[in-house]
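Input for the complex:
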Amino acid sequence: MPAKTTIAAKTTKTAIITAENVHKKYRLGRNNFVHALRGVNLEIDEGEFVAFMGPSGSGKSTLLHVLGCLDNIDEGTISINGSNVTHMSGSQLTKLRASQLGFVFQGYNLISVLTALENVSLAVEYASKISRKDRVKMSREALEKVGLGDRAKHKSSELSGGEQQRVAIARALVNNPRIILADEPTGNLDSQTSEEIMAMMRELNKRTGQTFVIVTHDPDVGKECDRIIRIKEPPTSIMSPEARKNRGVQPGSVEGATSISPG
Amino acid sequence: MRAIRNIFRRKLRSALTIFGISIGVFALIVMGAMAEKINLLVDGGLKYYGDKVSVSDKMSGNLNIQPLSIKKIDEINEVDGVKAAFPNVFMMLDPDQTVALGTPKMIVAGDPEADKYESFKANTIEGRLIEKGDRGVAVVGSDLVKDLKAEVGKDIKVHNKKFKVVGLLEKTLTAPDSCVMLSLEDAQELFAKSLPPAIRQSVKPKDLVTSIVVYPEKGVDPEKLAKRINKEVKDVNASGPESFKKMTKQATMIFNFIMFGIGAISLLVGGLSVMNTMIMSISERTREIGIKKAIGASFARIMREFISEAALIGALGGLIGIGIGSLVIAAANSGTAQKGVVLFLLTPRLEIGALIFAMFLGVIAGLYPAWRAARMKPVEALRYE
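Predicted:
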């Protein structure tokens, strides 16, 4: 049985994200699964600034994806802001993502043919039926918040990495979601830009009380956070001994649960 | 518009697809314009034959006109339900003509008295129509003006006889455009001359007609009246509007079949190429779809985005096809106008129809690719490189 660790809420604050006994398996072939999440239990409080840290392939991105309702789970329960999302339909999840969650990705994931402003306003368009004028206004404000007010008309391909990530943050912020999920937000940036981006997110967290969940393997990033949730062992895939050998997995090793410890 | 920008991300590919649809729509427009012209002719004929009975000799065929005795008029007038009957002479303007593209060139003559009963009114743009007692004069249909070098006041030659032009007919786009109208007496003489010598000697020209037009009394069904005439008058063939309908139905059916065939082929080719383009652009944009879904784009939203792109490809192809088609039709019409023939009629309903058809095609072809895009799982689409 995989080990399970449960971290209870540290304070009396209300939990905005809870996961109970969450399992996620990926199918690689017919009889070949990766058991990426093995009974994860966690709670994240409203307004927390949390990092998920762990080695590559430990399942930290997978965890972020399932918490962000981008992927379904095989077992367990996930609640976002008090509502159980486990059995929600695709369109309910879409609405939830649009209104309550903001995403920031490692590769920025902007739409290259659109300008910074258009990228941000797309998120507003998807989330609500707001007039074009108000959409532009909201998007401009979001861009100003991340210090890119003067770059609004530039296409994302004309922006530097740091600038693109700021646009992505503006896009994640624009609908005022309660939770912002960031997958290696500084992974493609140099150390100075990383610091700037982290400082900015920290600042936003303090100012707006939005909850930030950041996946990272950079200890410097982790230091900035209130709490580090460590995801220790890489998941073991259930596969042939041959394949395991090729991947450098010890023949006997089937341990490798996702465990969590306070930072 | 975002859809336009998306289409022109891959300029050459989109242009080729649009061009493919253009060709289909072009074919549709050209064939359609030909069909429209024929429809108009048929409609004109249906209108003309709609309220009357046409009587000809039993042996008479479409292009094989047999003489009929004018005395039959008296017999027809005896039939119950006949309001009036008048003699007509219809004959080929060009005796050697056997097949005609569009309507054949005809010599037409009737009794001016019949105009009182006739619902079809011929109008002149210059001069006047044939009047009672006229001899040696002609009124020329619009398509024949150039051909015969007709001018009011000048002479033209019809069957090697000189006639003075007294009027030019207004263009109707129907049968009268290719007619020369003569007085009944002149036409009877020409007709008599065209008969084989053996028959010619035994008859008087003024007893000869080619058909008799019969106007029914008010409330009398022309179809039933035609049946009664066939029963009561010997050696004639009376036909009501139905027979004209039946005759034209066959001809238009072939045309409609060709139209349908071209429509189906362009549907297939154009639709497949739109589908191909959309599938390619969706697989190129998988990651983008993932991003959009992650930030909250709904299924319907993604569907709409891609379907509107496909519809736009269809519409652009349609517009270009209609444009090229219109140019070619205008060129072809001005080419054949020299000979007084108009082969194509480009109507607004055809243009609008073709455009809607092209857009519809785009939408249909875009449905499947759009559905594929819309149902992608965000995390899988995001992972896609």
